[in-house]
Amino acid sequence: MTIIQLFFGQDIGGKEALSKHAWNAFLRDAVTPRFPDGFTVFDSYGQWRAPDAKKIGRERSKMIEIAAVDTPEMRKNVEELASLYRARFHQQSVGIVTMPGCGAF
User: Fold this and answer.
1) Across-strand partners of 37?
2) Taking a C-beta distance cutoff of 8 angstroms, is the pair 47, 56 a contact?
3) Which of 12, 28, 54, 58 has the fewest beta carbons under 10 Å from its own?
4) CB-count exposure of residue 85 (10 Å: 0-12, 13-18, 19+)
5) Going from the N-terminus, what domains does the chain have, and what CATH number goes with each?
6) For residue 47, what are the contacts with CB-CB under 8 A and spacing of at least 6?
7) What is the pLDDT along the chain (105 residues), one digit of tens a residue?
8) Which runs of E-coded beta strand occur in the chain?
9) Cβ–Cβ < 8 Å for 63, 5
C-alpha cells in the first residue's frame, strides 16, 4: 500500500478561512468519488514559504490521509485533488507526501 498525506491550507486569498460548508462540499464532490474506500481528515496548523516569497505564511489547514494500493489511477486521483483544490480555492500549493506502507482493512 501507499500512504498519501495531502495538506490543504484553509486561508482563502489571505482574507478568510474556508467555510465548513465549502470544505464538506469538496470532500463530498472531489475526495469521496476518487477514494470511496475511505480516508481520514485531520485539523492541523502549519506554515510554509512560497518559492518566490521571503515571508513565511501560517494558517489553519486540513490534512487528508489515504491508504491505498499504488496504481497509476490512484496517483492520477491524488494529482486531480490537488489541482482541483488549488483552482477552486485560489491556493498556490497543496502539499503531497507519499510513502510506502503496510496495511489491511
Assistant:
1) none
2) yes
3) 54
4) buried
5) 2-100 (3.30.70.120)
6) 56, 57, 58, 59
7) 999 999 999 887 666 788 999 999 999 999 999 999 999 999 999 888 877 777 888 889 999 999 999 999 999 999 999 999 999 998 888 999 999 998 877
8) 2-9, 11-12, 16-17, 40-48, 57-68, 95-100
9) yes
